[in-house]
């Protein structure tokens, strides 16, 4: 497992996701818009993994930040003529960070179920505001006409999603570098400590509450950026970026991939969104059933998510080969 | 010389073969799951039935391939993504379908950017057709039903209360009815908007009851939600309090009437289509529907919008002999008249690309042991979208 104590250098297998992504760009030109969505959700899942998997903050309200980021970028692009993609990202990050620190400072004094309900309440409130402020957000009809200028004045967001894919890939790469750096730092070790034994972390003099607020704000910021990316890719914002459902979906993706492991956040969204895309195409009337079956199977047979399963197999395989070697001796 | 001849013959044969293998791909997006997910099949069935019955009329060698996708209810984000994929991956010639307005609005920019004609077979907010020059609508607008309803109601009632779903069509319905009703001398005593995905109507109904209006105008998306509204209307005693329930035809869709039961009796609506209509074209349509899908099945207004939309698509294909050009298709749509629609003669307004159609005043009555929307009066034979007419005057 990754952590402060392990070697912080990037191992060769950690380059695998990036190689796959670049290969996908060249090999699957028709799937790039789906690809860009997957990348956005990976970034979103990473942000959740940081607080859920590492700091142990359970939340059903992470979509509040994602949605706020999405709407911030969208409203700027549709109503105020701020079309520069980086400015939109920056504004979204700031807005999400602000919401993160202000709500985090209140709700992180609570734990477990209370915390869960509070996070849910926050995203519901944001959802209701977005629904009611329809002159700004378009309400249930959604916010259309979001303008996004070409990146650096050169790369226009095209119908095929080429620009969007590369743009999201770069954003995800930077997000991944940042999170990876965090997890391998003393800060990351402290988070794991808080998750495993809060009382002891208090005892060793760690500022538990402030660490939690900080990581919560960081995660919120990242979720806000992911939301803004989605807006820019879609050039549209709908209410479905907010509320329980997207939070739940995200949680499902993370559980699918494996919670508390950096690459669980990579595997989950890929499997979930591709399965969704495939099933919805094959069986437009019954595709939810397929998703349901997938979930049941994972929860029953792969408790640590898909990566947990891979781990188990790997261990079983190496145990067998070592025992085979022992008996050969 | 001979080789050239052979080569020419081969080329001819090849081109003939290419023409023969002409396939028109229609990207069909509708709702099979989520809020009112039962409505999607009513649209798809109509499209498939039309294709089945009229396939022979297509130019020789031309085939239609229908690619269906689920937008999961009012989910504009998903709809946009599906439309994009249909255009990029499946390279469809046309986009069609769509139950919900937000989804149609989200797809509009894709139609414009990709230059793909987009035939709207249900979504009824007035503004939709202005969002892309490639949009044609064969369904209806809420203004078309709610405005005449308001005019009619103003003659019968003094006060009205409106209850609508809080999204595009709801706002349209509220505004259209309100405008016509007050212009006719009526008074709106209260207007409330309920969230689109609202599970509980009791609180709203209680407020209406306390306000004691002569009539309550309701718009909610067609389907199961309407049944819930009806039940609450009766349970809270609004019917006994003498409040008349009226609305656009969305609230008494033909397939939901059996689920509503006695409550629905006497509800007055204005709409373009009732499965109980006695026009020969409609009788034929309903009979074919029952023959294809079972005796207990009934088409509804979504089916008719899709049926007529498919007829329009056929016209585009026939006139262009199977080679679709976006601009040309839209031109054909603008000139389109269809006298044989189950709802009566319809056409497309060349200025707005929106539908012109008859509107009927209907009452829910018992006919042969079943509840039905019985047409009691024709309010107009060629109603244009009133919203667009009002915009022009401004």
Question: In words, what does this structure look like?
Answer:
By secondary structure, chain A is mostly helical. Chain A contains 14 helices and no strands. Chain A starts with 15 loop residues before the first helix and ends with a helix. With 394 residues, chain B is α/β, with parallel strands linked by helices. In chain B, 43% of the residues lie in helices and 22% in strands. In chain B, helix 4 links the parallel strand 3 and strand 4. The longest helix of chain B has 19 residues, at 2-20. The N and C termini of chain B lie far apart (71 Å). Classes of the chains: A mainly alpha (329), B alpha/beta (394). At the A-B interface, helix 2 of A face strand 2, helix 3 and helix 4 of B.
CATH superfamily of the largest domain in chain B: Response regulator
Number of DSSP-assigned strands of chain B: 14
> By helix and strand content of chain A, what is the structural category?
mainly alpha
- How large, in whole angstroms, is the Cα Rg of chain B? 22 Å
Largest pleated sheet of chain A: none
Shape descriptor of chain B: globular
Whole-number mean pLDDT of chain A: 86
Kindly report the oligomeric state of this protein: heterodimer
Rg of chain A, Cα atoms, Å: 20 Å
CATH level-1 class of the largest domain in chain B: Alpha Beta
The proportion of residues in beta strands of chain B is 15-25%
Quickly count the domains of chain B. 2
Low-confidence stretches of chain B: 16-20
Report on the biggest sheet of chain B.
Answer: 9 strands, mixed
Query: How many angstroms separate the termini of chain A?
Result: 31 Å
Question: What layout of secondary structure does this protein have?
Answer:
The complex is a heterodimer of chains A (329) and B (394).
Chain A (H helix, E strand, L loop, with lengths): L15 H12 L4 H23 L8 H17 L5 H23 L4 H21 L1 H4 L24 H22 L2 H11 L1 H6 L4 H27 L9 H14 L6 H19 L4 H15 L3 H24 L1
Helix pairs in contact in A: 2-7, 2-10, 2-11, 2-12, 3-4, 3-5, 3-10, 4-10, 8-10, 11-12, 11-14, 12-13
Chain B lengths: L1 H19 L2 E8 L8 H16 L8 E8 L5 H13 L5 E4 L3 H14 L3 E3 L14 E3 L4 H15 L2 E7 L2 H16 L3 E8 L7 H10 L3 E5 L4 H12 L8 E5 L8 H4 L7 E4 L8 H14 L7 H19 L6 H9 L2 E2 L7 E3 L6 E13 L2 E14 L2 H8 L1
Parallel strand pairs in B: 1-2, 1-3, 3-4, 4-5, 6-7, 6-8, 8-9, 9-10
Antiparallel strand pairs in B: 10-13, 11-12, 12-13, 13-14
């Amino acid at each position: 497992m990754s952590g402060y104590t392990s070697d912080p250098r990037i191992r060769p297998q950690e380059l695998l996701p990036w190689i796959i992504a670049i290969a996908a760009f060249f090999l699957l030109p028709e799937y790039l818009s789906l690809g860009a969505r997957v990348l956005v959700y990976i970034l979103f899942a990473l942000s959740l993994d940081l607080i859920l998997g590492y700091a142990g903050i359970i939340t059903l309200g992470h979509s509040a930040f994602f949605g706020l980021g999405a709407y911030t970028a969208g409203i700027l692009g549709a109503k105020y003529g701020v079309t520069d993609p980086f400015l939109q990202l920056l504004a979204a990050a700031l807005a999400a960070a602000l919401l993160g620190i202000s709500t985090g400072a209140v709700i992180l004094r609570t734990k477990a179920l209370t915390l869960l309900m509070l996070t849910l309440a926050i995203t519901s409130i944001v959802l209701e505001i977005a629904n009611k402020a329809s002159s700004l957000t378009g309400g249930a009809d959604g916010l259309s006409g979001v303008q996004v200028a070409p990146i650096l004045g050169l790369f226009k967001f095209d119908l095929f999603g080429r620009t969007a894919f590369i743009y999201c890939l770069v954003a995800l790469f930077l997000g991944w570098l940042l999170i990876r750096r965090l997890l391998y730092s003393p800060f990351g070790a402290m988070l794991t400590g808080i998750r495993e034994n809060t009382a002891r972390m208090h005892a060793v003099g760690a500022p538990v509450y402030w660490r939690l607020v900080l990581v919560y704000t960081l995660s919120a910021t990242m979720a806000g950026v992911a939301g803004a990316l989605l807006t820019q890719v879609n050039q549209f914002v709908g209410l479905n970026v907010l509320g329980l459902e997207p939070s739940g979906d995200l949680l499902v993706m993370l559980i699918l991939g494996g919670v508390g492991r950096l690459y669980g956040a990579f595997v989950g969204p890929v499997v979930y969104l591709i399965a969704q895309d495939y099933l919805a195409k094959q069986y437009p009337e019954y595709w939810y059933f397929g998703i349901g079956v997938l979930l049941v199977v994972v929860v029953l047979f792969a408790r640590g998510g898909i990566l947990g399963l891979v781990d188990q197999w790997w261990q079983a395989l190496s145990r067998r080969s070592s025992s085979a070697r022992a008996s050969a001796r | 010389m001979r080789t050239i001849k052979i080569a020419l013959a081969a080329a001819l044969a090849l081109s003939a073969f290419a023409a023969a293998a002409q396939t028109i791909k229609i990207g069909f997006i509708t709702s099979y799951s989520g809020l009112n997910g039962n409505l999607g099949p009513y649209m798809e069935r109509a499209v498939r039935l039309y294709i089945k019955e009229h396939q022979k009329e297509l130019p020789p060698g031309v085939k239609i391939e229908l690619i269906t996708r689920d937008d999961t209810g009012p989910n504009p984000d998903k709809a946009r993504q599906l439309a994009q994929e249909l255009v990029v991956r499946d390279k469809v010639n046309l986009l069609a379908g769509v139950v919900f307005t937000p989804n149609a609005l989200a797809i509009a920019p894709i139609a414009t950017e990709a230059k793909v004609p987009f035939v709207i077979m249900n979504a009824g907010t007035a503004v939709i057709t202005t969002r892309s020059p490639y949009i044609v609508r064969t369904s209806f607008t809420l203004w078309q039903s709610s405005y005449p309803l308001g005019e009619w109601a103003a003659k019968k009632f003094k006060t009205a209360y409106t209850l609508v779903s809080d999204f595009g069509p709801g706002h349209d319905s509220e505004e259209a009815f309100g405008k016509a009703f007050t212009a006719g001398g009526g008074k709106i005593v209260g207007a409330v908007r309920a969230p689109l995905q609202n599970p509980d109507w009791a609180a709203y109904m209680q407020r209406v009851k306390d306000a004691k209006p002569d009539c309550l105008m309701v718009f909610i998306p067609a389907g199961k939600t309407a049944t819930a509204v009806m039940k609450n209307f009766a349970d809270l005693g609004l019917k006994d309090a003498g409040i008349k329930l009226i609305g656009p035809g969305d609230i008494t869709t033909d397939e939901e009437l059996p689920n509503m039961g006695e409550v629905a009796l006497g509800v007055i609506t204005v709409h373009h289509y009732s499965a109980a209509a006695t026009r020969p074209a409609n009788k034929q349509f309903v009979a074919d529907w029952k023959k294809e899908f079972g005796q207990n099945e009934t088409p509804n207004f979504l089916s008719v919008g899709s049926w007529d939309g498919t007829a329009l698509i056929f016209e585009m294909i026939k006139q262009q002999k199977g080679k679709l050009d976006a601009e040309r298709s839209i031109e054909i749509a603008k000139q389109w008249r269809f006298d044989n629609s189950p709802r009566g003669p319809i056409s497309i307004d060349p200025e707005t690309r929106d539908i012109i159609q008859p509107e009927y005043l209907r009452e829910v009555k018992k006919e042969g042991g079943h509840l039905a929307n019985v047409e009691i009066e024709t309010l107009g034979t060629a109603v244009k979208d009133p919203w667009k007419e009002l915009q022009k005057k401004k």
